[in-house]
Structures are given as C-alpha cells and as structure tokens.
Amino acid sequence: MQPKSIQKSAMQTSFMHINDKQSMNAWIVAACWLVCWFVFAMFTALLSLPAHGTSWADFTQPLAGKPAAIGSYANGCIIGAQPLALAGEGYQVIRSQRQRYYGHPNLVNFIEQLAKAFKQQNGNDLLIADMSMPRGGRFQSGHRSHQSGLDVDIWFRHGQGELTVAELESPLKQDVVTKGTLSVNQQWQTSHATMIRLAAEAPEVARIFVNPAIKQQLCNMSWQDDTWLQKVRPWWGHSLHMHVRLCCPDSDTECQNQSVIPAGTGCDELAWWQQQLTAPKQVENSPKKPAKPKIKVLHPQCEQILQR
Ligand SMILES: [Zn+2]
Predict the structure, then answer these.
(1) How far is the CA of 152 from the centre of ligand 1 (A)?
(2) At what angle do helices 212-220 and 190-201 cross, to 10 degrees?
C-alpha cells in the first residue's frame, strides 16, 4: 500500500489531467464555433454584395425596359440600350472588346442609315468607335460624355477595305490635321467632308464635334447649301474621328439637350480658334490654388440604376 501523501498526489495528478482534457475540449468546441461563425458571416457578406459592383463599367447587359436616355450627355445613363451589330452594311465596329457599342435605338438606327448612305456615295465602310456602355454612365477612362446612349465616335480612317478581327481590335489611326494649325493634312479626303455632311444633314443630329482645322476646311469648301455647317462644332482633339451627338428623343422626358447652337454656319468663330492655337502660352507666376474636384450629382434614376 502506498503512503497517503503519494495517493493524494496521484489523485491530484489524475484530477489535473481530467481538468486539462475538459478545458482542451472546451477550447476545441469554442474554436469550432468561432470558425463556423466566421464562415457563416463571410458567406452572408458575400450574398449581400451587389451583383454589379459599384461602377458603370461593371454592367455587362443593358437594363431592360422602354428605351430612355436619362440626364445629360456628360452626366446620364440609359434604359433599354441596344447593341449595335459588330458589322453591318457599310460599317464595322472597332475595339468591341471595350463593350462600348450600346446606344439608344435612335443612335443604332442613325449609324446604320449613315453607313448605308455613305457606302452608296463613297463605296467605303465606316469604322464605328465608342458609343456608350450597356447602361451608359460615367467612364473610368476616356470620355466625359457618351453617357446617355446618344453619342458616337466615327473614325476618319476609311477606304482600306474590310478589316480583319485583329485589325479591328487595334486599328491604325488616321490623323487628318496638321497639329497646332487650322489646316488639314494630306490624309484629308473629300470623302471625309461627305461623311460629316451626311451625318449633319440627319434631322436627329444635334451636334458634330470635329477639330477646328476640319471645320476650317469645311468652311473653305463651297457648298450649294451650307446650313448643315451650323451643327459642326470645332473642339479640341477630334482629328482622328468625328463625334456625332443626337438630340434627345421627344419621348424621353428626363433627357437633357444642350443649349441651342447660335445661328449661322459658325465659320466666323474660327478666328478665336486661330488665336488659341497661335497665342504664346502664358507662364504662371503664382502657384494656382488646387481646384476642388467637381462632384456631379447623378440623376436620381441613374442613381437607382447604378444600385441595381
Ligand atoms: Zn466622342
């Protein structure tokens, strides 16, 4: 028989083991619960995330519904946009991987009609660049406008026959302007003037933005009827493409047109552009106050569309 002190110590040791095991089990159970809770919480959080993300570029499909352009060209969106077929009679869409070939049905129809008319007159295909994203909205790169499904860029490059898939994805550019001047360069052809005139004569077109040198060229040419020149607006850049902007469709009550263009052909405005191009750049002596970033408030309907 063992002495009492040894028996007591053995009992203590055995109790300690039991206590250790119990506390170990409790820890394991607690850890399991913690892991389960964490997995459950993550799963719930994932389910509650919006399916679209937070950017207009995340939408891969138009919002179904009666077509409606909403808001302004530079702060808007679109319901019921249509994709332009990537190739049709007289045109091909370039850089389609960007998913910017959606627009109001009026815009899709305008492009199809313009391409047919141009093909009949000129025999060439048009290269159609950016329209809008599937639900319009603000771009992460590139354009300020093109947001309400009513703008399209059409390249000046044409006449090289049908482009291959690889060429369409990264097409060669054709700049028709001599930089820093009001003159077009040797790449300019009369077919470019035809393309702009045909577009400007369409009643649904509100404005066409081109480089001032192109507007100057059009003003230099003689036309039987030059009233369409009013819609051709000189703007920075735009020497690789013309930017066509349609009027708000009458039925789209939330669509905001731009202000009315002043009467006349606008050819007399080119002196101002000449000044801009030739005036020596002013040197800033005092550091400028950093401009406050302008935060545009979305149209309420666009806000709703973005949250869907
Ligand atoms: Zn544009």
Answers:
(1) 6
(2) 90
Q: CA–CA separation, 110 vs 106, rounded Å?
A: 6
Looking at the predicted structure, is the pLDDT value of residue 292 above 80?
A: no
Burial of 179 (0-12, 13-18, 19+ CB in 10 A): exposed
Domain 83-251+266-277: CATH class, spelled out: alpha beta
pLDDT of res. 277: 87
Q: Is the pLDDT of residue 6 over 50?
A: no
Amino acid letter, residue 295: I
* Cα of 82 from ligand 1 centre, angstroms: 18
What is the spatial distance between Cα 67 and Cα 249, in angstroms, rounded to a whole number?
10
Three-state SS sequence of 13-70: HHHHHHHHHHHHHHHHHHHHHHHHHHHHHHHHHHHHCCCCCCCHHHCCCCCCCCCEEE
Q: How far is the CA of 282 from the centre of ligand 1 (A)?
A: 29
Residue 75 Cα to ligand 1 midpoint, Å, equals 14
Ion ligand 1: protein residues whose beta carbon lies under 5 Å = 153, 243
Q: Which residue has the higher pLDDT, 11 or 266?
A: 266
Amino acid letter, 58: D
Ligand 1 centroid to 76 CA: how many Å?
Answer: 15
In this prediction, residue 25 has a pLDDT band, given cuts at 50, 70 and 90, of: low
Quote the ligand 1 centre to 143 CA distance (angstroms).
Answer: 7
Q: Which of 111, 302, 90 is nearest to 205 (CA)?
A: 111
Within the chain, residue ranges assigned H as helices are: 4-48, 105-122, 165-169, 190-201, 212-220, 270-278, 300-307
Q: Compute, in angstroms, the gap from residue 159 CA to the centroid of ligand 1.
A: 21
pLDDT (average), residues 74-86: 97
Virtual torsion, Cα 226, 231, 237, 242, nearest 10 deg: -80
Tell me the domain boundaries of the chain.
83-251+266-277
Average pLDDT value for residue range 62-82: 96
pLDDT at 44: 43
d(CA 277, CA 75) in angstroms, rounded, equals 29
